[in-house]
Amino acid sequence: MSKKTIAAIATALGEASLSVIRISGEDSIKIADKIFFSFSGVKLKELSGYSAAYGEVKDENRVLDDGVALVFKAPKSYTGEDVVEISLHGGRLIAREVLRLILAKGAVHAAPGEFTERAFLNGKTDLTKAESIMGLISAKSDAQLRLSRSAHLGKLAGKIEKIEEKLTTAAASIAAYSDYPEEDIEGLSEENFSAMLNDAKETLTEMLKSYDAGRVICEGVTTAIVGKPNVGKSTLMNMLSGVERSIVTDVAGTTRDIVEDTVSVGDIVLHLSDTAGIHSTEDKVEKIGVERADSRISESELILAVFDCSKPLDSDDYALLERVKPLNTIAIINKADVGMNADLGIFDGMITVKTSAKNGDGYDELCRAIAEITGTANLDPDSAVLIGERQRACAERALLAVEAASEALTLGCTVDAVGVCVDDALAALFELTGKRVTNEVTNEIFRRFCVGK
Ligand code: GDP
Q1: N or C: which end of the chain has fewer CB within 10 A?
Q2: Fold held by 6-122
Q3: CA dihedral defined by 20, 21, 27, 32, rounded to 10 degrees?
Q4: Is the domain 130-210+386-434 a CATH 1.10.3210.10 member?
Q5: 1 confidence band (pLDDT: 50, 70, 90)
Q6: How much is the pLDDT for 396?
C-alpha cells in the first residue's frame, strides 16, 4: 500500500455547523503548514501532539476560511501516523475548496476506509474493532449501537483471543512433541487436549448461535404484511411506521401493489412490505398484485399475516394460513376492538398477537413477539457477538477445524494429524481478528467504508 499522505473530508457533505478535513501520513503536518496559518504565528510543526491552533486557511493570499487545526503525532493518532484535522465552518464549498488546496500541496485523496485501514496496518485496531465502526456510524437502533460499541471496545476480540491462546498452547505442545517425541512434554496429555478443544468448541458454538440474532439487529428483517383485502394490513403498516404511508380505505383491494418502508420496532429494524390483499380474484390488475404478494412471502424472513377476527374466517383466510404456517409467521388477530367472532383454534401452534391496528393497541405485544421469533429477545447487545458474514464464516471454519481435531484425537490419530486441524482453526481465528489476513480480505473490508473514515 502507498504510504503517501492522504486527505479527505471526514464529515458529511452538506450545510452543518462544522466540517472536518483529515490529513494523515508523514507529510501531513508539513502540508497543513502550507495552507494553515495560526493567528498566534506558531507553526503546526512546532506543536506537540494533541494540540490545537486557531487560524486561517489561505490559498496564496485569499483566505478560504478560519478554523482550528488539531495536531496528532505518530503513533498517538487514529491512524498511528502524524495526523492533522482541520475543523472549518460547515458547508460543501468550504470543505471542497480546502481539500482541493491540500491535494494541490502534495496529499492524495484517501480511498474509502483508508484511514481505518492504516490504523489496522499500524496495529491501532484489530479487524473486529475496525468493522464495528461501520455499525457505530450506521446504527439504526439502540441495540445495534450497543452491539457495535461492545465489538469496538474489544469484547469480541478478547473472547477470540482467549480461544487463540489455548489453541496456540496446544499447537506449540504438538510441535514440541513432533520434534522430540521421546521427551515427556508437560501439558501434553490427551485429557488436556480434549479440555482445550472442548472449551474452544463451546465458545465458538455459542458465538455462532448468537450470530443470527445479531444479524437481525444489524441488518434488519425483510417482513411482508399479508392478508386478504380489508383486514387492516395498511392500517397495521401505518401503525408500525407511525405515518400514513399506505392508503387506508374501507374499499376492499385498495393496496394493489407493494408499499415499502423501513421501521424500528423495539430493537429491531423491519424492512416492511405492505402487499396487495391475497384472495382469489379475476381482476387482471389485482391478480398481478396478488402474485407479487405471494412472491414477497417467499422472499421475506418474517411474515405478519393479518386476519380480521371481528368476522368468521373464510376460505381465503384458510388458504393464506396454510401458505404461511410453515414459515416464520406471526398471526395478527386484528380488529380486536370490534369483538372476536372468528374461531381462534385454527391458530393453534402459531405465535399470535391480538391487535387493534386502528387504535394502535397490541403494539408492545407485537414487539415482544417479533423479538421472540427473530431470536433477539435473549440476545445481550453488550456481549461479544459476531458481526457480518465474514466473521461468521471465519468462526464456522474455526469450529469445524476444532471439531476435526477432537475427532482425530478420539480416533487415536497421530499427534501431527491433530496439529494440522489445530493450525487450521488458528488460521481461521487469525483471519477473523486480522492477525494473519490477505490484502484481498482487508481491501474488501475497508472499501466498504465511507471516504474519510
Ligand atoms: P387492508 O386492505 O388489509 O390494507 O385494510 P385497511 O388497512 O385498508 O383497513 C380496512 C378498513 O378496516 C379501514 O376502514 C380501516 O380503518 C379498518 N380497520 C383496520 N384495522 C382496524 C382495527 O383494528 N379495528 C377496526 N375497528 N377497524 C380497523
Answers
A1: N
A2: Gyrase A; domain 2 (3.30.1360)
A3: -70
A4: no
A5: very low
A6: 97
